[in-house]
Please model this.
Amino acid sequence: MDSDTYTGEEKLLAVLSHASAAFFPVLLPLVIYLLKRDSSFVRHHAKEALLFHLGFMVAEFISTLLVIIVIGWLLLPFFFVVYVICTVVAVVKSLRGEPYYYPVTTHLAQKI
Model:
């Protein structure tokens, strides 16, 4: 679909799904996904954001455990930087009305 065909509301909900990384990173994309199933654009962005946020939480938990053997001190900042960069890119793509696929969840999101 052309980016001009998406409404302001659809773009806002897509942006909120990604930007929820700062607040309610799992709950907000899930609610948006469940409430706006009729919009393929919003559904796509909410699903991508939800899977990415869940994946990041798992990576963060494992890295926290690995702090005991020092490698976690390197992984935590690395994952945080990747998380921030991917989230910013996703927000910009959403505002433009373009689809965005997170690099680590792309294959999983396509199967769901």
User: Anything to note?
Assistant: Residues 86 and 103 are 8 Å apart (CA to CA). The chain has a mean pLDDT of 85. The first helix runs from residue 8 to 19. The helical segments are 8-19, 27-35, 40-66, 71-96, 106-111.
